[in-house]
Amino acid sequence: ILFMGVFTMNKFEMKNVIENTGNEVKKAVSKGKDIVFDSKDKVFDALDINKDGRVDTEDIIVLGLRIPGVHIDREEFLRKQFMKNYANDVIQDAVKFNPAHAGITVEEIDNIADQVIQYERNCVSGISLALGAPGGVAMVATLPTDIAQYYGYMLRAIQKLSYLYGFPEINVENGVNIDDETMNLITLCLGVMYGVEGSVASIKILSNALGKGVEKKLLQKALTKGTFYPIVKKISRWFSVCMTKQVFAGFFRKAIPVVGGVVGGGITYLSFKPCCDNLKKSLQDTALCNPSSRKSFDEFDVIDV
Question: Going by C-beta distance under 8 Å and a sequence separation of 6 or more, which residues neighbour residue 290?
């Protein structure tokens, strides 16, 4: 009887323990959900630099440009690339005008571009191995930094490739007050990298216009209010949707931490090169870097600006 009493008492105790444990688990889950949703809001707020209620190219560009070392000095970069194989007068011409104008072959420019892409790719592939380790809610503190570093390297690649293929200095040294022309030019490049419709044709049109010596004021107007502006806005909207999906769709995953292809070092290594290759390909055959290039049927002069 005593044994049965003890057994009966233990059975009731066990039932109470199970019930209490279940209640505590429910509380913990509910609290965890609150933390996660609160964390998602904090991530969004951290990425929404201009506080307009969405994360778009402007936020990503400003965030990336805040990373030390992102700004590439055009003259310094070009001199470093060509100093081994070319005389100073050739380098001077490349700096004053562009590498193609200095007589540097497209093949050599392409080769240097491939080296640039590989270098930046190697750098970006390891940025989040340490940052991405915690996973879960702990990722909140590191996520904006991770994204900033990823796009910081992408902005470095944009500058280097643009300079190799003939573009003038991109005004990003300040990193804080970026003018609309610069912001829209970088946005076009990001659109090309990610294959946003209309961006490839736009960057080729812009490059050809620069190659033909179209007045700078006209190009500035085209970038800020005219021909290219609708494409820029389209790219910005695409990024807004894409970034929101990438950040929040992956928030609950631990195997592939937040932002999918951005955070994982190995995945980043695979995703970075195709983006840069897209930009390189769009810049290769234009009047700016290849005077003998032919204008394709989908390119047109900068008009109605």
Answer: 100, 106, 284
* pLDDT (tens digit per residue) in 197-215: 889 888 888 888 887 777 7
What was the pLDDT predicted at 225? 84
CA–CA distance, 272 with 124 (Å, rounded to integer):
8
pLDDT in tens, 23-45: 543 444 344 344 344 556 676 67
Q: Side chain identity at 84, as an amino acid letter?
A: K
Three state DSSP letters for the chain: CHHHHHHHHHHHHHHHHHHHHHHHHHHHHHHHHHHHHHHHHHHHHHHCCCCCCCCCHHHHHHHHHCCCCCCCCHHHHHHHHHCCCCCHHHHHHHHHCCCCCCCCCHHHHHHHHHHHHHHHHHHHHCCCCCCCCCCHHHHHHCHHHHHHHHHHHHHHHHHHHHHHCCCCCCCCCCCCCCCHHHHHHHHHHHHHHCCCCCHHHHHHHHHHHHHCCCCHHHHHHHHHCCCCHHHHHHHHHHHHHHHHHHHHHCCCCCCCCCCCCCCCHHHHHHHHHHHHHHHHHHHHCCCCCCCCCCCCCCCCCCCCC
> Which pTM does this prediction carry?
0.75
Q: Quick: pLDDT tens for 253-269.
A: 433 344 443 444 555 66
Q: What is the mean pLDDT of residues 221-236?
A: 87
